[in-house]
Amino acid sequence: MIRAKIIGAGGYGGVGMTELLLGHPEAEIACLVDVADIGKPISDIYLHLRGHCDMPIIDPSDPVAAEPVDVVFLATPDGVGMKLAGNILESGAKVIDYSGDFRFNSRESYAEYARRIGRPVDHVSPDLLPTSVYGLAELHRDDITQDRRLVGNPGCFAVSCILGLAPAVEQALLEPGTMICDCKTGVSGAGKKPAAAFHYPARYQTMNAYRLSGHQHVCEIERELGLLCNAETKITFTAQVVPVCRGIMSTLYGKLTKDLTEDRLFELYCNRYADDAFVKVSRSDVAASSSDVRGTNCCSLVVSVDPRTNIMRVVSYIDNLVKGQAGNALQNMNLLFGLPETMGLDRPGQYP
Amino acid sequence: MIRAKIIGAGGYGGVGMTELLLGHPEAEIACLVDVADIGKPISDIYLHLRGHCDMPIIDPSDPVAAEPVDVVFLATPDGVGMKLAGNILESGAKVIDYSGDFRFNSRESYAEYARRIGRPVDHVSPDLLPTSVYGLAELHRDDITQDRRLVGNPGCFAVSCILGLAPAVEQALLEPGTMICDCKTGVSGAGKKPAAAFHYPARYQTMNAYRLSGHQHVCEIERELGLLCNAETKITFTAQVVPVCRGIMSTLYGKLTKDLTEDRLFELYCNRYADDAFVKVSRSDVAASSSDVRGTNCCSLVVSVDPRTNIMRVVSYIDNLVKGQAGNALQNMNLLFGLPETMGLDRPGQYP
Amino acid sequence: MIRAKIIGAGGYGGVGMTELLLGHPEAEIACLVDVADIGKPISDIYLHLRGHCDMPIIDPSDPVAAEPVDVVFLATPDGVGMKLAGNILESGAKVIDYSGDFRFNSRESYAEYARRIGRPVDHVSPDLLPTSVYGLAELHRDDITQDRRLVGNPGCFAVSCILGLAPAVEQALLEPGTMICDCKTGVSGAGKKPAAAFHYPARYQTMNAYRLSGHQHVCEIERELGLLCNAETKITFTAQVVPVCRGIMSTLYGKLTKDLTEDRLFELYCNRYADDAFVKVSRSDVAASSSDVRGTNCCSLVVSVDPRTNIMRVVSYIDNLVKGQAGNALQNMNLLFGLPETMGLDRPGQYP
Amino acid sequence: MIRAKIIGAGGYGGVGMTELLLGHPEAEIACLVDVADIGKPISDIYLHLRGHCDMPIIDPSDPVAAEPVDVVFLATPDGVGMKLAGNILESGAKVIDYSGDFRFNSRESYAEYARRIGRPVDHVSPDLLPTSVYGLAELHRDDITQDRRLVGNPGCFAVSCILGLAPAVEQALLEPGTMICDCKTGVSGAGKKPAAAFHYPARYQTMNAYRLSGHQHVCEIERELGLLCNAETKITFTAQVVPVCRGIMSTLYGKLTKDLTEDRLFELYCNRYADDAFVKVSRSDVAASSSDVRGTNCCSLVVSVDPRTNIMRVVSYIDNLVKGQAGNALQNMNLLFGLPETMGLDRPGQYP
């Protein structure tokens, strides 16, 4: 059994990982670490876990937290993973970090990201950066191997945009500078901490755009798309919140460099993702929605072309807490340990 | 492997059973039967099943529907099961019926139920009634055995009320005629068919009481409670809908026959359900809610006493589509086939 | 024009009053006072007020706040009004307080209330208590007159319960000790301040009972009902939150002292409220709901009798922020100034 | 008093007009016409109107429906207004039609619209088309005058897109062919009729794009924008539904023809709408949302420029049932009768 430790166990990202590990046949939870609610059983905070996982939350300094494990999930905000990863790796465990700390593999690319999001530009563990891989299996499966020890799990918006645009970009189908990512997220993406904008009465019927001046996931999207087309790539990105709990719907646009039918585009996307169990491609006449992927690790892509303007439009649906976070992290764990990629992730969601 | 057929596969009750069977290690779906959408893969109707179950919906007259199976789930409305059960039982399969058709085991008790809900009072298969068992394992586990072949799965409100009141009633703690069941249900309880009262704009912020003149689940609640206290029992029951999709919160009241502390009541309820994996009992200082049981087969009971009025109050939470329907039906299947009662039902829900 | 000052202008109770005063033909807002967001236009905090009311929020110590006005709305929590009311009254203004501070008119009755809700039992302005009136016009219209200068605006749950039970209680129709108030409220009742239980992801599909050990509105309900029947009265009260923003649905039960038909009960309630513009009484076959009263000062009562148990059941719907708070306060203002009771309150809500 | 008749009074568009007319000081409802629920008081169907408007719904053939009125609101689907308008105009009344029937003022332009949306291309009253005006006052105020007798009220998406793009287009700021309208609507836009996609359980947490092959409002948007820049104009348009009841959020993109700061763009938009009471322009640092305009006739525009890609982005918020329908129609009525444009429309919404 793979023994897993979750740091940041009390947040939505942590509890999502706990839920998934409870259903994984080859992994088990070693301990749950956080800096609040120390000593409380996790099932006192999340009552749905009663009887399934009643472990207490322990402090990072707790001796139990120091016992050797095989993998550590860092369900922590930017700036934490870069401080902890070194010691964890030395202890022999592998690290999967949820934040932006290890999504970039050079000092310079990290600095650019940090600058954009207003954080200190110096990474505290720069030597680890080249050993890290961007944990999106659909693009980097061959690099997420048993030899690998450090994974930067992608941002939720990034997963939806990159998967939705990659096939077109790598085929050079889109004119540079025309890509627009119009993204709508559910509220759980903002985490567990109460805030005025996510107070039920303020949110229950409210949709709005936010951070119009720039979102932290833009960097990694541009980097990944740029790698695919071998050119510097810029996107226009709009983050929006709508009153759902889980789900991202990213509507992705780009001017086509040549005429292309929806059928041809569909075929091209199907081929690209033929070996990706978690990506489902549909034509525009399929009534896809965010609910189809809720609670699952799937990404549902609906491809279309507006023949009047020759603009490609891909609608990309994911569950921000699963394929956009814990589920994708578990997919990475499977790859890091040589397990089938879908292990523990192959059940359907619940509807309605 | 137990081969299961679902009749009424296209409704919420059917799809809930499909989801559960896909995760059950000892059962498999033989075929999906319904009278609409014939020939369509179930995954065209419920896109979240794509890749998990792509079987077509078949007509009851389809030869495939006639192939022998081990169990048939009748996810059908009142009046259907009583017509179909005889032939199914003759074919050797067991039957678990979702409707009220087999919740009563005499011609007379069925007639009373039918009268109250305005249906024909004559059961079309009256000879089967004595062979049926009321499928609530927490009360009738010893009767839901491998010898049994026909189960009437309880109504969703009934599950929440009976489990919440049974321990008090069987200890004769409540004065006759004082029991009140104030029940609030999510909208999915009304099924898949669109209706004016469940149209999103009419419902998204609407709560209301309905069927104030009488609800179809009252009969079985009174019958079950009456059996426990050996006396004719009447309840006052209010059905209400609130804008959630899944979940029932039943607040249950009764005048205590003697002084009782919350602690003593808690102990009594804990003892009563000590061997019931799906029932969780809490004191009134626990922040329980409908979300704790969402997507699971659990019933969460919060017990309290108002010392000023000496009225007992139990708040009972279930997921109406799981413990209130498909999950409870699967629990019954496990018992009918000698499997562990929790098989395929022991995973936690997802939060948030 | 009546010049009105709102203290606590930044909360939901304050903004509701601002909205109403903007539409009142005989009143105008003099100033908006609060202790946070000083100097900001109220329309920067509540963008829907842009162009309608762009006054800045001012500090209580601001000279403008000291300018004479005709009425002060204290949209403040328990303990504030009792400190401020004396000076305001001396300045010549009338006071309408939202909190429990002036709902009781003796030192003793206040102390009992304070004890139950865990506050200091000594009122800081006990001499004002006898001058205060409980501001529920439907019961105390004759006492809310131009001579009156101090009003304790009732609690939201209390409005719904008292209006729903008063006609039966004053006719001695209910057996003592059998009254149960099963109350469900929308989330806005908890105010503007973010909290874990009202964070959108924690609430969007969550219903739960809370404060099972006792709610602060019970005291005033029991006092008012006691006055109506001339006897000490106790109720069993359950507070519950459901995922709506606005609205209270209180389902009220009581054992009838004699047989009574729904028709007779309906007639009795209609007669009782014949002169109350804001109370609407329906039989149980009317499809009433919380949405009918959303955004309005109405209370909708649906009366019924369960003939099997002889228990009366009244479902009482209000908008907790209007009839349960600001609207009712404006109704009181109208009475205090000799204006038609419905002035500024007679528009329908919006649907859907 | 202006006497107004509403045809299609039972739908959301009709009831919205009834609500508004009840608060209009110079207009009154003459009669409510529909083809269903004949004879029922409108307040039996919409209980929030009880005591405010208890008129019965009458059949089009009812003699009362033939009594002369000053204005008729045709809250009816495509194809109805073109049949009725002729007779109404002959009777002396003015006509404001909600559908696409009179949004185009030539046989040819109507035919193109009809072709795109799959309706018969021949208008049944082609002679009326040249007398009609597109009822968007912010663009055509000078043509919506007391001389005018026929108005085609715009589509809800169209209002949000045209108001959001017009200032940029008329200044030739955008490169042809680069405009993208990414539109999200609340569910009430689909009307009152229950449908599978708008059934609460199917919708409560579901967001999706729909009609990817083309939406009926595209024609009028392209026509209006084309008129502003004197060139044939094509847009790429995506319709999406999110789980809110009321509200449209349209995110509008276009490649700038020259460098432009957000400040300059803000100034330009402010100037353009300086005389438009219902349009509010904000910079991107304002926390605007759909809730700011809920229940009101306002359009809130947030302007920004992505300096990295030189793409303009305007987020346009309206209430689809008010500025997107009944409110805008009333604004048109005011203009047709020489009344102040904001009469009956100048109250703030309610929050939260």
Please provide a written account of the structure.
By secondary structure, chain A is of the alpha/beta class. Chain A folds into two domains: 2-154 and 323-336, NAD(P)-binding Rossmann-like Domain (Rossmann fold); 157-320, Dihydrodipicolinate Reductase, domain 2. Chain A contains eleven helices and 14 strands. The first copy, chain A, has helices at residues 12-22, 42-45, 63-66, 81-90, 107-117, 137-140, 156-170, 200-203, 218-229, 262-272, 326-336; strands at residues 2-7, 27-33, 57-58, 71-74, 94-97, 132-134, 150-152, 180-185, 208-210, 236-241, 248-255, 279-282, 299-306, 311-318. In chain A, the strands form two sheets. Chain A has a seven-stranded parallel β-sheet, sandwiched between helices. In chain A, a hairpin with a 4-residue loop joins strand 13 and strand 14. In chain A, helix 1 (12-22) packs across helix 11 (326-336) and helix 7 packs parallel to helix 9. The longest helix of chain A has 15 residues, at 156-170. Chain A is globular, with a radius of gyration of 20 Å.
The coarse silhouette of chain A is: globular
> Overall pLDDT of chain A, averaged?
97
Strand fraction of chain A equals: 15-25%
Q: What value does the Rg of chain A take, in angstroms?
A: 20 Å
CATH top level of the largest domain in chain A is Alpha Beta
- Which strand order do you get reading across the main beta sheet of chain A? 3-2-1-4-5-7-6
Tally of structural domains of chain A: 2
Q: What is the annotated CATH architecture of the largest domain in chain A?
A: 3-Layer(aba) Sandwich
**Which regions of chain A have little confidence, pLDDT < 50, spanning 5+ residues?**
none
Oligomerization status of the protein chains: homotetramer
What name is given to the CATH topology of the largest domain in chain A? Rossmann fold
Largest interface: A-D, 51 and 51 residues
Biggest pleated sheet of chain A: 7 strands, parallel
The string of secondary-structure elements of chain A, in order, is EHEHEHEHEHEHEHEHEHEEHEEEH
The helix fraction of chain A, in percent, is: 25-40%
Report the total helices of chain A.
11
Structural class of chain A: alpha/beta
The CATH superfamily title of the largest domain in chain A: NAD(P)-binding Rossmann-like Domain
Q: What distance lies between the first and last C-alpha atoms of chain A, to the nearest angstrom?
A: 34 Å
